[in-house]
Amino acid sequence: MRPDKPASPDAGSDQWWVIGRLLPVAAVLLLAFGLRAHRIGDQRVWWDEGWSVWVARFSPLEILRQTGHDVHPPLYFELLHVWRALSGDSEAGLRLSAAFLGMLTVALTYALGRRMARATFTGRQATTAGLLAALLLTVSRFAIAWSQEIRMYALASLLAVLSVWAARQAWDRGLRRDMALYVLATAAGLYTLYLFAPVWIAVNVAWLWVWRAAADRRRAFLRWVGLQLIVLTLFLPWLWYAADGFLSTATATPIGLLDFLHIYWTVLTVGIPVDVAQFNRLTLPALAVFLAAVTALTARATARATARATARATAQAMAYRPQTTREPSTIGYEPSSVLPASPPFLRPRTPPRDVALLLVVLLIPAVVVYVISLPKQNFYNPPFNPRYLVTFTPFYSILLAWGLAALGARVAAGRGDREEHASSRPPAGGGLVAATLALFFVAVALVGLWPYYPGRVLIDDYPSLVSTIDAYRQTGDALLLYTDTDWPIFAYHHPQPWRGVPHLWAITPETAADFLEPIWNDNDAVWLVTTPYSASSDPQRYIPAWLADRATAVREFTYKDMALTLYTRTVERAQTADQLINSRPANRIDISLPADGRLIGFDQAARDFKSGDVIHLFLYRQGQEAGHTEAGLIDNAGQVWQPTPLALPRGSELVRQQVDIIVPPEAPSGRYRFYIVDRAGDPTPFGVLNVRQKQATFLTLDEVIIPNEINASFTGGIRLLGYDLGAPAATAGETVTLTLFWSSDGDVGERYKIFTHLLGDVFNADNGNFIWGQVDSEPAAGTRPTTTWRGAEVIVDEYAIPVALNAPPGIYRLEVGLYDSLTGERLPVLGPDAAADHLILTDVRIE
Predict the structure, then answer these.
(1) Which of 127, 170, 150 has the alpha carbon at shortest distance from 18?
(2) Interval 399-421 mean pLDDT
(3) Of 146, 281, 504, 688, whose CB count within 10 A is highest?
């Protein structure tokens, strides 16, 4: 019978005991998987995820070559290569592997936490501590977020806990299978993430506690060092092959030690790594409780270790006999029956092994992450990113859960129950204290988790654009990404061949011609994907100008801040420019249209939208006669929103037509459908979408104070009412605070960016212009795009313009204006005294 299982007179009691223990574990694991799978596909693929999928699409051998020149080793990508063969390439399918790994990490956290807690508590109390550790990890926003990414961090976390588990088992039992598991888990962790090495280092530091208690320290040392040499031998070939790839120099952003620790503690408790000061009212009390819990745990574990050592020493002193049992393990702790006696008067002066193990795994890797992220000359400098800390989150959960149980016991013992405190079962009152504190930490975690899921929205960045490429691209058409700044995201959505215009190039007419001419001559047409980053390397638009000068036909499609343009080289290709290659709509419908047309299907790339978003709807129509109709949104009450006139061109075959519908700012949150006016003149609904109204309070001129009035007008009905300057002077390296007050004569149908420039009289050689400070953004930090503006509403738009560190002292001018982020074209300023396409607001003195 297991030592922590209560004696039972009948099998029925045993069965209920097992059920009572397994059900809570199963419930926590189901919750863990549910939280990690919930809305897992409702987030766009970002740069690193796109890179992961791009690498995983190669053959296993090619994956080794690609990762040999990258900052991450190959194991995760090889596993993802196998996984995507089962899951496909959808966002949800690819991310589910991380969700499963995250759930397994929770399960192993329970097992490790329970096993460690048995050193100080009875089996039932240890099980409770393990469950609490699993629950804390289950609701950790930080752990959940990285269990919903197509990245290697969920796998690294699982292998870290498995490595620590196996090391501890090897120390306790000395079995070969435990040693083998430790070697394999550690080597796999190193093949998953180079920053797994600090976990390996921490385990070896914790082994010093084991070595100190070993009967034969020399043999224990040789055995343990032998295991580390095996790990190193397994990893050394890859280290030799890939050293040039991951040890390349990089530019790190300095971060202060206190800021680093602040972020570390906040992500452990709240799970949010940005704007961490706002959580101080929660994280600072949590830190005080955590330190008290660790102190109580250290004291309790030390007292228990001393009591066991004293009992063994007393027993050996009363009845000593030669050892006839098997030779004890020399890698770690020996079975209690053969441990050498410790003098009763010697009290351990260091934390017991398991407490020390958790502390070093939490602290040493964090120190390593901080040190290597410090800027250094000619050395590997990965910029600090909080995601490097997610691997250590399970150990925080274990240490906190175990410490809270110990703190509860200590608090109760302080009430006078000293005798019960000395036993392995905490007093009943201590359980209430521990439970209360545990609920506090769970509540802190839920504060971070609560806004997490509403922020997950699958936006239409590239899907609509790529669907148009798939619909019309023919054999012999080249595809150019202009520029390739976010090429992994594009490659995720479009796995077929393409070329990228390097984003580091400064495009001139000569470089544009040299790059484009061979592509143009070898293909019948060129599709140009214009991204928001194209203006930075080609502000004069030499690339599209070169293509347009030679094209026999041009077709342009716009998508928010991107565009897709077809340039045909031959007359034959121009004649088939509108010919559908892929004519299968994703959704089949049958609606009669005016004239003789029929709507037979539609495509939509996303289902969730917010105020001001542009919905790209693709309609598939059959019919020869031209006509007119109307499309838009309709709510559950039958109210029509954003009616959009729709011309139906003449066509003899199937026609794919793009309809752009702006979500009106006044549309309330809820479920909507598309509609189209049919042949009878009635709005016929189809499809489904969700709208989230994200609209600020309507401000009028009477409700705001504008210190400096301007009332300048731009084309499109946009007006700058005035501004407020935080201070008339600043120092190089500081920021200039500026608030702009905008309004409009009505709805603005296009999205524009606002530029704010700090112009000097001295040429800035770093930028190649006279700008010494700049912020470009959509209004109100992107929260109030111009498509959400309502007539007569006042938009308060704040900026913090950083002044260059090397800005010379002098008088600078503040310049503002608006531009189309896709073309770079500025909006003209209206009026006889206007300065063409910008406004000079005022002067700022830089000291």
Answers:
(1) 127
(2) 75
(3) 146
Query: Quick check: 389 and 261 in contact, CB under 8 A?
Result: no
Evaluated on CA atoms 137, 143, 148, 149, the torsion sign reads: negative
**Dihedral angle at the C-alpha atoms of 381, 383, 389, 391, nearest 10 degrees?**
-60
Looking at the DSSP assignment, which residues form a beta bridge with residue 615? 661
Tell me 835's DSSP state. B
> How far apart, in whole angstroms, are the C-alpha atoms of residue 263 and residue 278?
12
Q: Which of 151, 48, 160 is nearest to 99 (CA)?
A: 151
| Three-state secondary structure readout of 610-662 | ECCCEEEEEEEEECCCCEEEEEEEEECCCCEEEEEEEEECCCCCCEEEEEEEE
**Least confident among 41-45, 248-252, 469-473, 545-549:** 248-252
Contact indicator for 528, 548 with CB cutoff of 8 Å? no
Kindly give, in sequence order, each residue whose CB lies less than 8 Å from that of residue 184, ignoring residues fewer than 6 positions away.
none
Is 477 in contact with 525 (CB distance < 8 Å)?
yes
Cis, bond preceding 67 (omega within 30 deg of 0)? no
The tens digit of pLDDT for each residue in 9-35 reads 455 555 665 676 789 999 999 999 999
**Pairwise CA distance, residues 18 & 7, whole Å:** 12
Residue 530 · residue 492 · CB < 8 Å: no
Q: Does residue 820 sit in helix, strand or coil?
A: coil
Would you call 92 helix, strand, or coil by DSSP?
Answer: helix
- Spatial neighbors of 442 by CB under 8 A, at least 6 apart, are 135, 136, 139
Residue 204 class from Cβ within 10 Å (0-12 exposed, 13-18 middle, 19+ buried)? middle
- CB of 631 closer than 8 Å to CB of 618: no
- Percentages (nearest 5) of helix, strand, coil residues in the chain: 45, 20, 35
Residues of the chain above pLDDT 90, percent? 61
Q: Is 779:786 a contact under the CB 8 Å cutoff?
A: yes
Residue pair 803/727 in contact (Cβ under 8 Å)? The answer is: no
Query: Across residues 96-122, what is the average pLDDT?
Result: 95
Contact 158, 104 (CB under 8 A): yes
Predicted confidence (pLDDT) per residue in 384-401, tens digit: 888 989 999 999 999 999
Q: Are 686 and 591 in contact (CB under 8 A)?
A: yes
Q: Which of 172, 175, 200 is nearest to 354 (CA)?
A: 172
Return the structure tokens found at 14. Answer: 């045993």
Distance CA 528, CA 508 (A): 18
* Rounded Cα distance, 21 and 25, in Å: 7
Q: pLDDT value at position 625? A: 81
Mean pLDDT of 274-280: 92
Q: Decide: residue 511, CB within 10 A, 0-12 exposed, 13-18 middle, 19+ buried.
A: middle
d(CA 732, CA 807): 6
User: What token pair was written down for 452?
Assistant: 């997490």
Selection from 742, 723, 719 nearest residue 814 by Cα: 723
Show the tokens assigned to 271.
């799970």
Task: Indicate if the pLDDT at residue 66 is higher than 80.
Answer: yes
Per the structure block, which two tokens stand in for 250?
């990089």
Phi then psi for 573, rounded to 5 degrees? -70, -30
Cis before 483 (ω within 30): yes
Long-range contacts of 568-571 (CB under 8 A, 24+ apart): 568/524, 568/525, 569/520, 569/523, 569/524, 569/525, 569/526, 570/524, 570/525
pLDDT for the residue 560: 80
The answer to whether residue 748 scores a pLDDT higher than 90 is no
For tokens 């809270």, name the residue: 404
| Main-chain dihedrals φ then ψ at residue 225, nearest 5 degrees | -60, -35
pLDDT digits (tens, 9 = 90+) for 451-488: 999 878 888 989 999 999 999 999 999 999 999 999 99
Token pair listed for 93:
């399918």
Residue 34 and residue 72: Cα distance in Å, rounded?
29
Q: What is the rounded CA–CA span in Å between residue 290 and residue 745?
A: 56
First-residue to last-residue Cα distance in the chain: 79
One-letter identity of residue 629: T
